[in-house]
Each structure stands twice: as C-alpha cells, then as structure tokens.
Amino acid sequence: MPLPAPPLPDRWPGGVLDRSGAERDVDGLLDRARAASDTRVLVVHGDAAPVRDSRLTTVPVTSLSQVREWAFLGRAADGGALLLAVVEDETGIVLPPDALWAPLRAVGGDLPAEEAEILGTAVALAGWLRDAAFCPACGTATVLRQAGWSRHCPNCGREHFPRTDPAVIVLISSADDPDRVLLGANAAWGGNRYSCFAGFAEAGESLEDTVAREVCEESGVRLAAIEYRGSQVWPYPRSLMLGFRARAIDDDEARADGDEIVEVRWFDRDEIGAALRGETAVQLPGAASIAHRLIDDWYRERS
Questions:
Q1: What is the mean pLDDT of each successive set of 10 residues along the chain, which is 303 residues long?
Q2: Which of 42, 43, 33, 120 is nearest to 87 (CA)?
Q3: Alpha-carbon distance 161 to 59, whole Å?
Q4: Is the pTM of this model over 0.85?
Q5: Burial state string for 91-120 with b = 16 or more CB within 10 A and e = fewer than 16
Q6: What is the CA radius of gyration of the chain?
C-alpha cells in the first residue's frame, strides 16, 4: 500500500479561491455580474495584472471598454463576483493611483496566498481564451460557454476546455550527505541561474517515471526515494508543476547533458542559505516559483 503524500507546507498557495464552479452553467451569469455594483474585475494583459503595494488591484466594470474576453473567476469573501477581463492593450485602462502592471513571474511570490492563486488562475485562463479560439478538430471558430470556461464548436459539436500540461520538478539531495543538493544551470538562462530539474510528462508515463527520466537525461543521476511534495500552477503557457524531492544513488554520476543543462553543481546548506539571502553571485529561482519553495523548504529543515 503506498504511503500517503506529505502535507503541503502552509506557504504554498492553493485551494483558497472560491471558484463557485456550479454557477458557470447559469444563463446570463456574466451579464448580471457586469451589472452588479459589488463585482470586482481583474484585468490581465499577457501575464500581467495591476498590482499596488504587493496586492492585486481590481477595477470597476465601467472603467473597461475594450475587452477581448470575459470570464467568471469565482466569488470574493463578501459574495461579490470576481471577473477576469482579458485585454489586448493596457494603455487605455486607468488604474488606481500607484498601481502598476506586474507579471506573475515577478510578483507571484510576494502576493498573499489567495491572491497568488487568483492571479495564476487568471493568467492561465486568459492564455487559453486568447490562444484557443478555433476548434482543433475542424478549425471552426468556437463559441464560449460556461462563463468563459469552455468552448463549443458549432460545426462538429465538440466541447473544449482549458488545457493543463503536467510537468515535474525535483530537488535532488546527496546520496551520502543530507546537507547537499544538486542544481543545474539551464542554457536558456545563460548559465547564470541554478535551479531544480524539470520536464513534461510524456504519454503513458507516470510522474515518478518522468522524474527519474528527466533527471537522468539532464544530469546523469539515478534516483531513489522519490517523494511528492506539492504542486503549483505555472501558466507558461499552461503547466501544472508537480514538485518532488529525491535522493541520488551515486553523487559521482552527476554531469550536465551539455544541451539543455550546461552545468550541474552540488551545493551545501550554507551556500544555499547565502544564495537565498542574496549574499553571493549564485542566482536561484525567483520567489514566485515552486523551484524556489522546494529549495527554501529544504534549507529551512536544518537552518
């Protein structure tokens, strides 16, 4: 019988937003929400939304004129509707004083947990609303349904929903020293930033097999004690990152693949702590990412 997954750390966002999914099938939901005085609108342009003092900033419906797509995100604590407005150009939108457009990558780690979840959901849904307007089966323009959460093809009758692609990300500890972890420098980052190893699950592959395959391909390391730690929405463009911890079987196997990963390196706990505090030239993942949380949680276990 498999062991239960360890509990998620309290700092990992998720499960706070009241999505009120049953309401999506209510006829005229979006129209009524746009007419209600207590409705709040989160505007998304690309992967950015208005932020002020590390808090999401909403705008009234009346301040928006050029909206590409509307969607129902859920209900706020006071019962008011929370809507998503996807816009092509943010220049015509008047934001509250001191509010600025900020991308999820930059501010997700600074927002309260419930707002990080809202922004991640909004960016993921906005990407699908922008990019999936046509039926992938027959090419016909689709019709939005379920308050922005599904598309119906009037030609072939198929129903389409926002895609989520599962991807694993894993922090590897040493076979011999629990105070060391292995990180890799990705070629896409110019070799200047070190992070956990990650990759997409392939068809017919379990998550554990994905972890073992990706790590072996990128670093040459075989793994033991693969343990699930938690997940995070990462809408770049539509990933669900599934975080794992694992232990290397042989530290000496570590080597970069030379293609995607240009360098692998073992770090001790003191080096990780210094990097997290910004005291060294070593760059770690930003606070918005699950990679940062995997590293930070490991560091705090014995700090």
A1: 38 69 96 95 96 94 91 93 94 86 94 92 96 96 98 97 96 97 91 92 97 97 96 93 98 94 96 96 94 96 74
A2: 43
A3: 27
A4: yes
A5: eebebeeebebbbbeebbbbbeebbbbbbb
A6: 21
